[in-house]
Every structure is written in C-alpha cells, then in structure tokens.
Amino acid sequence: MATTTTSSFAFLKSHTHTKTLFTRRSYKAIKAQSQTDVREEQVVVVGAGIAGLATALSLHRLGVRSLVLEQAQSLRTGGTSLTLFKNGWRVLDAIGVANDLRTQFLEIQGMVVKSVDGRELRAFNFKQEDPSQEVRAVERRVLLETLASQLPRDTIQYSSQLQRIEATPNGDTLLELVDGSKLLAKIVIGCDGIRSPIAKWMGFPEPKYVGHCAFRGLASYSDGQPFGPRVNYIYGRGLRAGFVPVSPTKVYWFICFNSPSAGPKITDSLELKKQAKELVKNWPSELLNIVDSTPDDTVIKTPLVDRWLWPAISPSASAGRVVVVGDAWHPMTPNLGQGACCALEDSVVLAKKLARAINSEDPSVEEAFRSYGAERWPRVFPLTIRANLVGSVLQWENPLVCSVRNNIVIPKLVRLGPLLEHTNFTCEGL
C-alpha cells in the first residue's frame, strides 16, 4: 500500500488469515533477495483481456510504459463476440483502433423483438432513436489482436500466472508468479477478469450467480450469411434467445435460460451444442439453422454473474497503488451490452488520471486512483443493477406476466431512446 497508515495496515491484516493464495511477508525478506531474483517494474497490468490491453494501450498513447502479465501461453482468443455501442466506439476512437475494426464488422441498424411463435412484437431503428448511435458486434478475438498489435514489442509477458501478492510498507507490491519469478511493482492494475485474484486480495466478494445461464456461439457462413443488419430477439417463458450479424460471413447467437444453479462445467462442445438446441427445438427454424451452422468448438456455456458495489460496504476500487478495472471490479450481466463498453471506459479514465500523476507527481498516484474510483462508481453501479433487473424481467416464467409483457409492455410501452441513454459517454482523444 502507498502509506503506512493504520487503516491500510488493518486492511492488509484482514487478509492474512485467508488461504495463502496471497500472503504478506516482511519487507526485509523481500529486500534481502538479490536484485537478480526480483525484477522491478513501474506499472504492471495483470490480465491481457479487453480491459488489460485497452488500459496498457491507453497508457502507451500517453507515454507511460507498462508490463502486461497474461497467465495463458498466448492471447485468450476464445469466446464469441461482444456488442459495442457508441460509448465503446468513442473509446476505441480515442485510443486509435476504431477504424481498423469498423472495416471488418457490420453496423447494426436496429433491433426486432419476436415471440416464440414468430410474431413480431416491436421493431426499432437505432438512428431514429439516437442519430449518434453506433452499434456493431465485434469478434472478441479480433478486438484483442487489434489492441495487442498496437502495443510495443514485449509489453505482454505470457505464461505469467499470479501466485501471490505481497504489500510492502513503502507502497510497492511484490508479485510472485507460478514459475517462481518475482516482480516488485510501483503500481499494479488488476484487469484479471470476473474471478480476479487481485480483487479477492483487496477484499471483494465472489461475483453472485443471478439465476440464469447462457449458451453462446458464432455461426459461420462461407458463402455469406443471409440476415439483415439488426439484432433479433425472441422472448419465451424463462427462456430467451437472440442473434445478430457480426460480419458478412458470421452471426453471433445466444440462448439464455433459467437455472437454480450454475450446474457442472461441461467442456464437450458437442454436448453443449446438443443442449442448446434442445432448449429451443420448437422455436423459429431460423434460430435452429443458425445453431446448426455453428462450428462445434465455438459453442460455450456460461453462468451469468454480477457484483453490486454497495456504498460504504464494498471495498473501493483501489488500495494504495493497487487498482482494479473492468470485470475485476464490476462484473455485470450482458443484458445491456455494457460489460465491455464499461471496461473500455474504465481504461481511458484510469490511464489519463494515472499518466497525469506519474508525469507531475501532483496529484499522487493514490489520489489518482481514488479519483478514478469516485468518478467511475456512479457510472458502473447503477448500470450493474439495471442490467440485472432487465435480465430478471426478460426471464419471467409466469404465463400471465409473459403475456402482458408480449402484448402490452413491449408493443405499446417500451421506448428505446431512454434505454440507450446509458451509452452517452464523452471521451476525448488521447
């Protein structure tokens, strides 16, 4: 931690009784090791996902070098795609990669909502609701590769899984990796995802399962996919699905279903695809055809989780010179399409504040992190709650309630404009 205040040591003390994935040892023991044993770094970013790479690239654009630690042997390019609204694109514009991505992915013009029997309940045009709106589904693999390609060589250190984190009285942080190597970092930025070890060390609880899971896949059409540029939703009882064209040859889809528990982890891709199809076997044939057109190894199943950042109860986003970003801090359900967008927002806000502190020493790094948390909390906490509530409404099972939703609420009451207000985010260039 940055200072030896009573509160900071009390915070550290509270972690010493937990399982020693992370422990604290004396600073003398650290300093006693030879310089060849401990490598010193100014800024270490833990995790080479969207948040980690965007943060590292934002810092790079601002003249601050960082080292990114990634536990995998290469970029984790699995998964399917993610939808980015205009706030995400404003960030990608600011860090200089948006135009490369725009040329590869279709701009989505609107959305249509249907019932299980194929009846159209409502259709919206994004530009009519908000002329400045920009919506595209982006392959996660391509986004990561694009961000990584703009970083200086050797910025990302692969096969670097974190084993232990130790605080020192002068505010530095010792990071020990599984392979036994050690780094002494002035600043640590945790971008290590939903199950973040950094967040756990800082005192955050595990993300909470929200009661439903999702199958996802990326269908491939070598001769061109047949769908128009719009998001397609199908709402049933305790079950919903959707699909959206990603590119001229690929279509992203999901099937979300209620489940009392997350269930066992299944790695057999054929079994996952079979289960997904079974859920919607009597639904519109175009959805089943999309699932059939999906390579088996791209089908995944994930339990949906989030973490609510209660004021005065939840830990703050930073502890001394350690800070968390994106899913490591505020995992949210995908019902608003804002998880990746908010992670991108975090990255530029944090990078600007941190670069200013490093270059001027006024304010301090600790104060820059506190300012980041104070600015971002009112943004991400309400969005996490809203995404959760939207998901709960869309997963209703009661037949009467679903009938009211399909025949009154969606056709006559829902207005898309107010639902898109959360995509308003001003982001100046770096």
Number of helices: 14
Q: If you average the pLDDT, what whole number results?
A: 89
Number of strands: 17
CATH fold name: FAD/NAD(P)-binding domain
CATH H-level name... which superfamily? FAD/NAD(P)-binding domain
Level-2 CATH architecture: 3-Layer(bba) Sandwich
- Count of domain modules: 1
- The best one-word shape is globular
Radius of gyration: 22 Å
CATH class: Alpha Beta
> How much β-strand is present in the residues?
15-25%
Which regions contain 5 or more consecutive residues with pLDDT less than 50? Answer: 1-27
**Biggest sheet: strands, sense, closure?**
8 strands, mixed
Secondary-structure class: alpha/beta
What's the assembly state of these chains?
Answer: single chain
Pfam family, one: FAD_binding_3
Domain FAD-binding: 42-380
Keywords: Monooxygenase, Oxidoreductase
Protein name: FAD-binding domain-containing protein
Would you kindly provide a written description of the structure presented here, covering whatever features stand out?
This protein is of the alpha/beta class and 430 residues long. The protein has a single domain (39-423), classed as FAD/NAD(P)-binding domain. Helix content is 35%, strand content 24%. It has helices at 6-13, 27-32, 50-61, 86-94, 98-102, 126-129, 140-149, 197-202, 269-279, 285-292, 339-360, 365-394, 399-413, 416-419, and strands at residues 38-46, 67-69, 81-84, 110-115, 120-125, 136-139, 156-157, 162-167, 173-177, 182-190, 208-220, 230-235, 239-247, 250-258, 300-306, 318-319, 322-324. Helix 11 runs antiparallel to helix 12 (365-394). The protein is globular. The two termini are 29 Å apart.
